[in-house]
Structures are given as structure tokens and as C-alpha cells.
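Hi all, posting the design record for the shared folder.

TITLE: backbone redesign
STEP: 1 of 1
STRUCTURE INPUT:
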């Protein structure tokens, strides 16, 4: 069953889009990521103009994240104070990111920049996460067999000597607010330019940089993603006119259902297992995008959503 997308200026299969939304929602609840790092490339692979894919995917992430965070909220796995500080930085970053996106679009370079950002960030983050997760699994197994207590996951460094310290009781941390604000700012820029919630960077950074417990990271990540991507969606709709409401609604419907299923599945897997699985998915998407960048396109020109409005 085909449906026409007015902003993307093309027809798509309804059930295919619903299925993609459900898959991304599943990842949202399972890993604590918005899923945009996977959905945006998939939409581009289907022929959706990159600018529309970025703007519209931000809208879908909002709904799937709301659905996922509600499930984690009921289990008490959301650090509200940390989430609000991350959101503050995210708002600042998303404002700057949308303006940068508009400038690049005017130059006609936004498609290339989107693809390069995905290859670089997914390759680096996925590779580091995979290596660390494998090491953690091996170390956990050795310590379990030897009966030795596990070492603390996070070690204090000079970063924790920064000023403006805040106590985060739910995460059992006492660290500088500069860290989460800076992290939120970076994620806000990525949300605007790449159409992602930033969870693929936020989750490992919250674990290894901020030192948060894995059990709290997923829910808190989803909490800040809601507000940052909502702001990014609003700005894209009003400044760049790249949000396709029809496409967003189809993705939302599938995403809400998938997020609830993912949240239930997440409690059955260990933190290290979740990180290995997420790292593999990130690397697969990175490889696919990298191959597409260096191969000759089937069409030398693209139409729609590419000019100024």
C-alpha cells in the first residue's frame, strides 16, 4: 500500500515505514538510544532526501523516546537532575546545529556532510565501544571464576576536579555540571545535523566519562533525548521546512510500540551484552554508509527538498 509524502515528494510503502519505526523503537527501549543513527541512513537508502530524513527522524525519536522513558521511569531508572542538565546543554547545541544545517544546505553540501558525520562518528564510537565491551565481558568472566571482587568501572581523573560540582543522588555521583552540559551541547549539535537523539554517543559517555551506573544510563539518556530532539524538530520545521508530517506519523506509530517491547527485553540482558550488541549494529551501519560514499551512485542527480524555500 503506497502513500505520498508531500515534503519528500515521493511515494513509499506504508507497511515498510511502519516496520522501520517499530525496529527503531525497539532499539530505543533496549539500548537507551533514539535510534536515529540507524533510521536516518535507512530512510536515505529508501530514497528519502537526506535533509528531509534528518528533520523528520528527529520528530519520530521524540515519540519513541517518550514511550521508552515511561517504561524505565516506572522502574526508577531515570536521574531527573542529570537529565535536566544534559537537556540544558542540548538546547544550546541544537540551536547552533540547526543554523549550521541551514547554512550547509544553502551551499548544497548538507548531504555530503551528513554522510561524512555518520561514517566518522559511528566508526569511532562503534569501534571503541566494541573493544571496551569485549574487554569488560572477558574481565567479568575471569573475576567471576576467580571469586575476586570486580574493580570499579569508573576511575576518577582530572576531569572530576572541575568547578561547579553538583550531587546527583540517583546516580551516586558528585561531579562538575560542566561535564554533562558540554556533553549535552555536543549531542544537541548532532541531533540537528544528523537527525539523531545522540544516544550512541550519550550512552557510552555517561558510563565511561561521567561514571553513571548502567542501570540508570538508559532511562536518563532517553529523558534528555525527548526535549533535545523536540527542540530540533521544531527548529527544522520552522527554519528549514524539512519535516514531513506524514512520514513522521507513520514512524511514530511503529516506534511507540517497539519501544515498549525493547524496554521489557533490556532487563533480561547484562550491561556488557547490550553494549556489544549496540556496537555491532553501529559498525554495520558505518560500513554501509562508507561503501555508499565511495561507490558510483545509480542516479547522478536528485530532486526534491534540496533548494531554498
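Okay, here is what came back for every position:
SEQUENCE:
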Amino acid at each position: 500500500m503506497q502513500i505520498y509524502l508531500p515534503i519528500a515528494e515521493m511515494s513509499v510503502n506504508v507497511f515498510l515505514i511502519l516496520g522501520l519505526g517499530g525496529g527503531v523503537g525497539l532499539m530505543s527501549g533496549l539500548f537507551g538510544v533514539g535510534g536515529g543513527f540507524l533510521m536516518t541512513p535507512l530512510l536515505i537508502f529508501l530514497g528519502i532526501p537526506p535533509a528531509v530524513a534528518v528533520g523528520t527522524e528527529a520528530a519520530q525519536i521524540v515519540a519513541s523516546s517518550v514511550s521508552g522513558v515511561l517504561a524505565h521511569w516506572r522502574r526508577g531508572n531515570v536521574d531527573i537532575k542529570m537529565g535536566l542538565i544534559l537537556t540544558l546543554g542540548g538546547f544550546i547545541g541544537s540551536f547552533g546545529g540547526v543554523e549550521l544545517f541551514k547554512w550547509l544546505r544553502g551551499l548544497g553540501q548538507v548531504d555530503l556532510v551528513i554522510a561524512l558525520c555518520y561514517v566518522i562518528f559511528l566508526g569511532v564510537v562503534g569501534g571503541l565501544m566494541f573493544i571496551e565491551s569485549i574487554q569488560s565481558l572477558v574481565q567479568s568472566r575471569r573475576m567471576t571464576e576467580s571469586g575476586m571482587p570486580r574493580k570499579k568501572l569508573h576511575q576518577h581523573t582530572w576531569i572530576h576536579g572541575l568547578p561547579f560540582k553538583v550531587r546527583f543522588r540517583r546516580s551516586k555521583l558528585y561531579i562538575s555540571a560542566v561535564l554533562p552540559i558540554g556533553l549535552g551541547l555536543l549531542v544537541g549539535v548532532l541531533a540537528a545535523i544528523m537527525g539523531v537523539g545522540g544516544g550512541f554517543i550519550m550512552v557510552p559517555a555517561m558510563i565511561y566519562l561521567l561514571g553513571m551506573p548502567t542501570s540508570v544510563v538508559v532511562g536518563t539518556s532517553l529523558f534528555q533525548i525527548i526535549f533535545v530532539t523536540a527542540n530540533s524538530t521544531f527548529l527544522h520545521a520552522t527554519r528549514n521546512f524539512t519535516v514531513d508530517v506524514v512520514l513522521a506519523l507513520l514512524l511514530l506509530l511503529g516506534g511507540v510500540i517497539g519501544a515498549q517491547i525493547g524496554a521489557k527485553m533490556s532487563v533480561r540482558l547484562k550491561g556488557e551484552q547490550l553494549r556489544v550488541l549496540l556496537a555491532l549494529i553501529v559498525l554495520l551501519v558505518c560500513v554501509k554508509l562508507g561503501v555508499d560514499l565511495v561507490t558510483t551512485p545509480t542516479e547522478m542527480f536528485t530532486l526534491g527538498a534540496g533548494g531554498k524555500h
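COMMENT: The chain has a mean pLDDT of 77.
Let me know if anyone wants the other runs.
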